[in-house]
């Protein structure tokens, strides 16, 4: 299929709400990655936009979406409770996935998730709910532990990326990693902190994510995903 290059604002129906997202659809897109933000971030996050650009260069479409409405986000700025409601975030992500399955320019594309912070837990829960649609998941500095029992139900190959200086989150990721039953890998980037602000750290995240999605999300000529590995 062919889609128009460039970023477009889309309004995504997700259950009872409509969410705003930024969709980039390269020509001959080979798959689409939905970015699930968490912990007070948004679709305008420069870190996730940087990773999305790297994926676009690999002819992967991207959808950066706010899982909270503007009104909910305003309330969350005061109380910081909705960002930790991973069931709500996962419900919205599932809605966005179903919307992509109906949207004319994306309905033929296999879906991947890139989750950050609590968005990683939402991505894992949504992946467990849509195993036929979701082909790969990547977590950046995420809280996969918050996905709870859904971890054992995830079938999509899952990559967990954590900063080496983010010691508390490393342990949470190791705990979650042990519960995942599918193809999986845990990568720790030396000396990187939670936001991967150190020189070169975010570039490593982008490279790892790109390689993971190219391996598992993009169909090969034989109609299968790349050869699985377990880390």
Distance between the termini: 33 Å
CATH architecture group name: 3-Layer(aba) Sandwich
SSE string: EEEHEHHEHEEHEH
Q: How much helix, percentage-wise, in residues?
A: 25-40%
Strand order across the largest sheet: 1-2-4-3-5-6-7-8
- The computed structural class is alpha/beta
CATH fourth-tier homologous superfamily: Alpha/Beta hydrolase fold, catalytic domain
Q: Please give the radius of gyration in angstroms.
A: 16 Å
Number of strands: 8
* CATH level-3 fold name: Rossmann fold
- How large a portion of the residues is in β-strands, by DSSP E? 15-25%
How many domains, as an integer? 1
Q: At the first level of CATH, what is the class?
A: Alpha Beta
Number of helices: 6
Sheet having the most strands: 8 strands, mixed
Taken from the alpha-carbon principal axes, the silhouette is: globular
Mean pLDDT: 88
Descriptive notes:
It is globular, with a radius of gyration of 16 Å. Strand 5, helix 4 (118-129) and strand 6 form a beta-alpha-beta unit. The chain is of the alpha/beta class and 231 residues long. The relative contact order is 0.15. It has one domain (7-216): Rossmann fold. Helix 1 (46-57) crosses helix 6 and helix 3 (86-102) packs across helix 4. The chain has an eight-stranded mixed sheet with strand order 1-2-4-3-5-6-7-8, with helices on both faces. It contains six helices and eight strands; from the N terminus they run E-E-E-H-E-H-H-E-H-E-E-H-E-H. It has helices at residues 46-57, 70-79, 86-102, 118-129, 167-179, 201-216; strands at 7-14, 17-24, 32-36, 61-65, 111-116, 134-140, 158-163, 184-189.
């Amino acid at each position: 299929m062919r889609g128009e290059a460039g970023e477009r604002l889309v309004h995504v129906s997700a259950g009872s709400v409509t969410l705003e997202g930024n969709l980039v659809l390269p020509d001959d897109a080979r798959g689409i990655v939905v970015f699930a933000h968490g912990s007070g971030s948004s679709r305008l996050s420069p870190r996730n936009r940087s990773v999305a650009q790297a994926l676009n260069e690999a002819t992967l479409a991207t959808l950066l979406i706010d899982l909270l409405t503007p009104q909910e986000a305003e309330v969350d700025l005061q109380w910081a409770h909705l960002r930790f409601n991973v069931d709500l975030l996962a419900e919205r992500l599932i809605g966005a996935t179903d919307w992509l399955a109906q949207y004319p320019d994306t309905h033929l594309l296999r879906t991947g998730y890139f989750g950050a912070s609590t968005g990683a837990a939402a991505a894992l829960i949504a992946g467990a709910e849509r195993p036929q649609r979701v082909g790969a998941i990547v977590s950046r500095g995420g809280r996969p532990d918050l996905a709870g029992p859904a971890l054992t139900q995830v079938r999509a190959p899952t990559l967990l990326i954590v900063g080496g200086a983010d010691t508390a989150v490393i342990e949470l990721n190791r705990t979650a990693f042990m519960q995942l039953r599918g193809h999986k890998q845990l990568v720790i980037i030396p000396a990187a902190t939670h936001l991967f602000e150190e020189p070169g750290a975010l570039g490593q995240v982008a490279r790892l994510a790109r390689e993971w999605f190219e391996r598992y999300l993009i169909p090969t000529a034989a109609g299968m995903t790349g050869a699985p590995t377990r880390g």
